[in-house]
Amino acid sequence: MAAGEIFGFLGPNGAGKTTTIRLLMGMLRPASGSARVLGYDAWKRSTEIKRHIGHIPGDVRLYEHMRVEELLDYIDGFRASPGRLRAELLERLELAAHKKIKSLSRGNKQKVAIVLAVMHDPDILILDEPTLGLDPLMQQAFYTILLELKQRGKTVFLSSHILSEVERVCDRVGIVKDGQLIEVQAIESLRQNKIRHMDVTFAKEVKIEELSLLPQVLEVQKHDNVLRITLRGDIDAIIKELARHQVVDLTFAQPSLEDFFLSFYGPGQKNDTKSQPAKKNI
Q1: What mean pLDDT is predicted for residues 184-193?
Q2: How many whole angstroms separate alpha carbon 189 and alpha carbon 176?
Q3: Is the pLDDT assigned to residue 12 strictly greater than 90?
Q4: Torsion over CA of 136, 137, 140 and 144, rounded to 10 degrees?
Q5: Which residues lie closer than 8 Å to 216 by C-beta, 6 or more apart?
Q6: Of 39, 52, 138, 161, which is the most buried if we count CB atoms within 10 A?
Q7: Residue 100 lies in a domain
Q8: Are residues 100 and 139 in the same domain?
Q9: What is the pLDDT of the chain when averaged over all its residues?
Q10: What element of type H or E holds 134?
Q11: Are residues 97 and 64 in the same domain?
Q12: β-strands 6-10, 172-177: how paired?
């Protein structure tokens, strides 16, 4: 990963995302190989590395008996200087510092985790599902904060199950399967290659043979005057073919993570142990 880059990390449950993050954070010792952060061995130099990292774990645990401000003070006490972004983050995330953590909603506890990770202005952020529990407005506020940090040269490693989130903020995306990094793509390439569903309503019944022959089309399902087209890649040829008929409505369904992973794993490959994916560097 480069300075000023937001790198997305995607994979199904059990693929190894959280394990990778724990290795980078020096919480696990690798059985073989090594992980390096800022040029240092993540296990041997874990304490030094953590001075430069902000981390949000996938399972946020906080000291419930403390007030928000008490917890922030407590964490600040371990650092050489107080978190200079603390007040700004509390305001932008609309988080009341005087409240007891045990009284907070799931979303507000997630805000506390964000402040803890970002307030000391770290060089690297390692985030595991950082927007869990946040309402849409707070998600937007968080994305804005990430993009501002990127512009200031910070590096962000973002693990997420929300495909639209990754597309919105990431520059590149890594796909992990069975503990192996099998693909690294620029976000624009990912948008072009993902499987999508197009629902098209026509004024009258149409034949589907022409569409089925197009290389971008994976499947066509017909229900009266409505076609659901499953496709991958450029849509220009499909739009031109559709324009030969009177189109009443056209919508794109948000792709599911299952569809997204099928783009890389392929049908029937999930349990294939004969071919091992090639290792890739981030």
Answers
A1: 79
A2: 17
A3: no
A4: -160
A5: 231, 232, 233, 234, 235, 237, 238
A6: 138
A7: yes
A8: yes
A9: 86
A10: none
A11: yes
A12: parallel
